[in-house]
Amino acid sequence: MIPASGHREDRPARAAGRRPESIFARRGGSVELLRVPAAVFGFLASVRGGLYDRGLLPVQRLDVPVVCVGNLTTGGTGKTPTVMFVACELARRGLRPGILSRGFKKVDGAGDEARVVARHLPEVPHVEDSDRVRGGLELERRCCDVVVLDVGFQHRRLHRDLDLVLVDATRPWGLPGGTDGEAVRAVLPRGLLREAPSALARADALVVTRSDQVDAAALAALEGELDRQAPGRPILLARHRPSRLGGSEGERPLSELAGREVDLVSGLGNPEAFERTVSGLGARIREHRRFDDHHAYGPSDLDGLGEDGRLLVTSEKDAVKLPPRAGLRVLEVELALERGTSVFEALLDALPAARAQRERDSVHEGLHG
Description:
Layout: H1 20-24, H2 35-53, E1 66-71, H3 79-92, E2 97-101, H4 112-120, E3 126-128, H5 132-141, E4 146-150, E5 162-168, E6 205-209, H6 216-229, E7 235-246, E8 261-266, H7 271-280, E9 284-290, E10 311-315, H8 316-319, E11 328-339, H9 341-349, H10 355-367
Parallel strand pairs: 1-4, 1-5, 2-3, 2-4, 5-6, 6-7, 8-9, 8-10, 10-11
Antiparallel strand pairs: 7-11
């Protein structure tokens, strides 16, 4: 297994130096000056949270229940597969889910994650709006029974009925571990936390993603820390399971990667996790060209990759921004719960019914009364 902290030094790391975590993960030097604005940011986040806790800031309720899939960090926890997993589970219960997200870095009217969701769940309405209340009302108008709020844990102006908070087992607090194994744990801009870990106490359940990519001791230590930060909250374990290998040449078996030398290209919040997933399929990685999350690819970004018989492998989120090319493989993943399925199902079953759903049920009972 490749260490969670990084990248093999014996192969090129083109573009990796531009990623923020490569700077913030270091200790000492000028980067520590960022602790001053981070202290200000953390104080303001705490004050804002306290105002919501005391009811001094208004909260808008929708006529439909809201399930929030959120996190504490700025990205890389695997929220898109989780959002699709939740939406599918709600639909399986006969509900009409709608997905609400911010829509970061839209291209042709949609963000990259929205295009991935649309490909898998074309029948599920998806609204991208930085004003989450306005977006939620739009999904109500589209007759949705429940709203799945994507990355909304800090958007407390919209009431939610269930808060699921994702914690990436390989980077629980946003940054990879340093040479001593300990990762810097700090809020923006010194670290990648949106608020302090104590905010996890607001969650209804914690979902540890990529739980299969760390050893048992590290996982047990993380669970202990999460239980201290959010006592009594259920902790679910999940992994990102490779589900399909696609590309311009059609679907290929996942076994095609076994024993093959490949190049990777990605613009993800946690590129090391993607690398470990590919390695787990038996591929031998020659180069992983890593760009910033939500990177807008240019004509020269893939130069030199996938040559001399090597396959070029990318994520589904990146593939929607790349032109088709021979030898390109797109690795798709899906969320799989390893522990806590019954808890997750109970949480969904406990959601209140939407007003429209209650009216339908009332009419149905009247017809049979």
